[in-house]
Write a structure and sequence with these properties.
alpha+beta, OB fold (Dihydrolipoamide Acetyltransferase, E2P), 4 helices
Length: 126
């Protein structure tokens, strides 16, 4: 199970990479393996401002659909358009080419509420 130590995580299995005032968000290796083959990623919240824990989209696998929860409050400024044609990138490279959105986050203190890689490992029993 790949859980990069430089990332932050949520209890809902999203990962967060902070780059200045931008946060890149995707789902974890654990989440994609639990979901199975991902066939569709939908994000209809581009250019919207949402609060942390609001639903920003859905990911559809062969057998289930799962909501995606925003880890930090802010503006959704970019969607990974490559996922429209190749949603399987989430399965193949969840922390790289399979990223989902970029957020211009508005509350720096919310980062402190995210899980470290060790805390996330404990959450999933890894």
């Amino acid at each position: 199970m790949n859980i990069p130590s430089e990332l932050k995580y949520t209890k809902d299995h999203e990962w967060v990479k902070i780059e200045g005032d931008i946060a890149i968000v995707g789902i974890t290796d654990f989440a994609q393996s639990e979901l199975g083959d991902i066939v569709y990623v939908e994000v209809e919240t581009l250019d919207e401002t949402l609060a942390a824990d609001e639903i920003f989209g859905t990911v559809e696998a062969v057998k289930t659909v799962s909501d995606l929860f925003l880890p930090l409050s802010g503006d959704i400024i970019e969607f990974n358009n490559a996922l429209e044609d190749e949603p399987e990138k989430v399965n193949k490279d969840p922390y790289g080419d399979g990223w989902m959105i970029k957020i211009k986050y508005s509350n720096l203190s919310e980062i402190d509420g995210l899980l470290s890689s060790e805390e996330y490992k404990n959450l999933i029993g890894a």
